[in-house]
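We read letters as residues; the fold follows as C-alpha cells. A sample entry reads:
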Amino acid sequence: MTRAGQHDPPVGLPLPLDVVYVNYDSTALLHASIASLLALPADGFVLQRVVVVDNASRPPHAELLDALPARVDVVRSPRNVGFAAGCNLGARRGSAPAILFVNPDTRLLPDTIPPLARGLAAHGPRALLGARHFLDDETTLALAPLRGAPLLDEAVHALWGRGWLPKQPLRLLARRARLWRARGPQPVRAVSGGALLMGRAAFDELGGFDERYFLYVEDIDLCKRARARGMPVLYVPEARVVHYGDQSSQQDPGAAGAAAAASRATYLSLHHGRAARALARLAVRAAAWLPDRQRRWQEAAPITTDFEFRCPGDRPWVVELARSPLFDDCLTAFPEARTYRAPAGLWPRLRAGTYYARIAEEVRPDRWIERALYAIAHARESGDANL
C-alpha cells in the first residue's frame, strides 16, 4: 500500500480528543450542548481542547459567548465563513490525535463518545465515524442515516409530484432497520457532521472540509472523498446523540434554503460529469411532460399531531415521519410496545406544513409491508424548524 497516512501511529484508549463547534446565532443551545459535554464521565476519552468558532453571531447571541466556561477556546470570526470553513478553523486550533465535530444544537449523552472512541481505536486514525442522531430527548425518533446526494433525487421527486411513484419500494426502510439492529461500526456512504469523529491523520490527509460548501452537503462530500482514498466511513449505532436539528439555519430559512441548493449544485459539479448532470436535468424536464396520475398523498388519512399509532399485528413494526410520502429522508421509530405516540416536544420544533406518517410491518426477515399512511397538518406554535 502507498496511500498517504498508512504509517500514522495507531490511536489508543483513553483517546485524547479535541471537540469543535461552529456557532451562528445558536449560543443558548451551544451553552447547553457544552454543558452536556463537560458533564460526561471520561469513559475511554480525554478532552484535550474544546473550540467554538463563532461565525459572526448577532446580538444577543454574540454577547452570550462571554459566559462560556473558561476552558472553552472561543474563536470569533469577523464574518460568517460557513460551516465547512469554521470546522477547519476550529480543528487547526488543536493538536489531539482525534477530532470530534459537534453541532451546537445537540445534547451529548454518556454513550455518545465512548463507542466512537472505541471504533476509532479499532479501525485506525484514518477512519471517520458518525453517531446515531435522535430528534427527541426520549431517543425514540432517529434521523435517517445520510444517503449521500444521489444524482437523480430531483427527478425522483418530480416523478412523485406527478403521481408516477404511487408507492415507493421499502428498500430504504429495510436498510434503516438493519442499521437500527446492528451492533458495532457499520460501513455507510456518509455520516452526519452533526457528531462526527475522525482521526487527525484523516483530517490532514483530506485537507479538512471543502470550503466551497457554505452550509450543507460538506459532510457528504468529506465522506465521499474519504471512501475514494480507502478510508473507513462508519456509522456507530451504539453512539447516541440528541440533535434538535438545523437551529442555526432556521434563523434565516431563506438563506439556508439557497445555501442548500448551492451546495447540492457544487457537489454534483465536483463529483459528476457534465453528461451525467445533463441527463439528470433532462429527467426532471421529462417528468414535467408526463400526465398527472393519482397522487400518493391523496391516499393518506388525516390525523392530528397527538395521534396514537397502533401495531397492526404481533410482528416488528415501524413508525416513520417525513415531509414527503417517499420517506427517503425521515424520522424513524421502532417501538417495542404495541402503541406509539410522537413525543409532545417534537412538534414545536418542526416547521409548519403537511407531514406524512406511515406504519410498516416486517412480515418476514428484511421484508417490510406498508400498512397505513397518514397526513398531519401541523401549524407550529413556537420553536424552530428542524426537518
Remarks:
- The CA atoms of residues 248 and 271 lie 27 Å apart.
- The radius of gyration is 21 Å.
- Residues 382-387 have pLDDT under 50 and may be disordered.
